[in-house]
Amino acid sequence: MNQASARRRLAAPTLVMLPRVADSLSFLYLDVVRVVQDDTGVCALIDGPRGTDRVYLPVAALSCVLLGPGTSITQPALATIARHGTSLVCVGSGAVRCYAGILPDSLTTAWLERQTRAWADDTTRLAVAVRMYERRFGVQVPENTTLAQLRGLEGQRVKALYKQLAQRYRTGRFKRNYDPAAWDQQDPVNLALSAANACLYGVVHAAVLALGCSPALGFIHAGTQHAFVYDIADLYKAEVTIPLAFSLHAATDPEREARLRLRDQFRLLRLLPRIVIDIQNLLDPDNATSRTTPKETLVELWDPVVGPVPAGVNYGNEPADLEESPW
Q1: Roughly what angle, to the nearest 10 degrees, separates helices 254-269 and 188-211?
Q2: 205 annotated to a ligand binding site
Q3: Longest Cα–Cα distance in the chain
Q4: SS3 breakdown of the chain: % helix, strand, coil, rounded to 5?
Q5: Is 226 annotated as a binding residue?
Q6: 154 annotated as ligand-binding
Q7: Which positions ≥6 away from 319 have C-beta within 8 Å?
Q8: In whole angstroms, what is the distance from residue 197 CA to residue 75 CA?
Q9: Which residue of 16, 38, 172, 231 sits 20 to 30 Å from the alpha carbon of 83, by its own alpha carbon?
Q10: In sequence order, what are the residues at sequence separation of 6 or more whose Cβ sits closer than 8 angstroms to the Cβ of residue 311?
Q11: Is 43 helix (H, G, I), strand (E, B) or coil?
């Protein structure tokens, strides 16, 4: 091995070296910039009256990069972000809509397999959905409670919360309204709530991808590629985004204020570690504390009898396989 290749291997981050998603910063929203890779790292080029400013991005410490309108990114910069395990989510203006996310390649499938097993069986899927409602309400759901009853209970609690916050901030009667076609005609609370929820979706999306789970396999929501993201984000709205939106009822720019304050709240509440732990507890409450240890060799072969077996091994010389093979 020559010196140049050895230096590249030492500089390239391995899975064990990468920070856990729970230890990362929450998100960084960018718009009207060009993201490039130079000799030092990933940076954003911002055109201004005094020329082009270069701002370096701490991609290794970020959980999620939200790319808004007017952004472009080069392939080397995208490759560096992927190597560091940072999720990249394409969003609309002000991070109001989440369009797509890029999954880091350096992941195991342990939690994806647990999610798929729980989702594919109606009994276990219902059990996960019930645990989600219990997590939101903070109470144990009676055994014979149906999902329809839980949805009704959820609606009552959200309405009561809206009424309580409207009285506290003296905003008058509040009605949730999300109309992209008449965005500028909405009141500040609705604008702030939509922007805050969109940022919350982006961070939850990043946590889901970082665990290797599928954003599409939801347990309460269905029919969208972000069903599981909506499931998990609903756990925190009553605590985070809804009170924040009402507190911005008099803001001149509620969308921007919601994004700035939400980033601070994510840090103060340590929301990312909570998201990771909640997902693990919901999918596999009995074994959620057994964290998967990162390994350099992640590829295995499935065996229905003995379980996973190592890949990259020639099994053709094993006598039992040769004797029983029909070929």
Answers
A1: 40
A2: no
A3: 80
A4: 50, 15, 40
A5: no
A6: yes
A7: none
A8: 30
A9: 231
A10: 297, 299, 300, 301
A11: strand
Nearest to 210 by CA among 76, 40, 27: 27
296-300 contacts at long range (C-beta below 8 A, 24 or more positions apart): 296/14, 296/15, 296/16, 298/15, 298/107, 298/108
CA distance from start to end of the chain: 41
- Of 7, 81, 92, the residue nearest 43 (C-alpha): 81
Nearest alpha-carbon partner for 229 in 50, 92, 101: 101
Calpha distance 197→98 (Å, rounded): 10
- Tell me if 70 sits within 8 A of 32, measured CB to CB: yes
Nearest to 111 by CA among 287, 247, 241, 299: 287
Going along the chain from its start, the domains and CATH numbers come out as: 14-102 (3.100.10.20), 110-283 (1.20.120.920)
- Beta-carbon contacts of 95 under 8 Å, excluding residues fewer than 6 positions away, are 29, 66, 68, 195, 198, 199, 202, 259
pLDDT tens profile 218-238:
999 999 988 999 999 999 999
* pLDDT surpasses 90 at 319: no
Residue 217 CB contacts under 8 Å (≥ 6 apart), including other chains = 115, 116, 119, 227, 228
Residue 127 to residue 241: CA distance in whole angstroms: 26
pTM of the model as a whole: 0.70
Please report the pLDDT score of residue 144 as a whole number.
82
Q: Is the pLDDT of residue 165 over 90?
A: yes
What's phi and psi for 96, nearest 5 deg? -75, -35
Average pLDDT, rounded, for the chain? 80
* CA 290, 294, 295, 298 torsion-angle sign: positive
Q: Which helix (H) or strand (E) holds 36?
A: strand 34-37
What does the DSSP assignment read for 45-114?
Answer: EEEETTEEEEEE--GGGEEEEEE-TT-EE-HHHHHHHHHTT-EEEEE-GGG--EEEEE--SS--SHHHHH
Band of pLDDT at residue 240, cut at 50, 70 and 90: very high
Distance between CA atoms of residues 89 and 81, nearest Å: 12
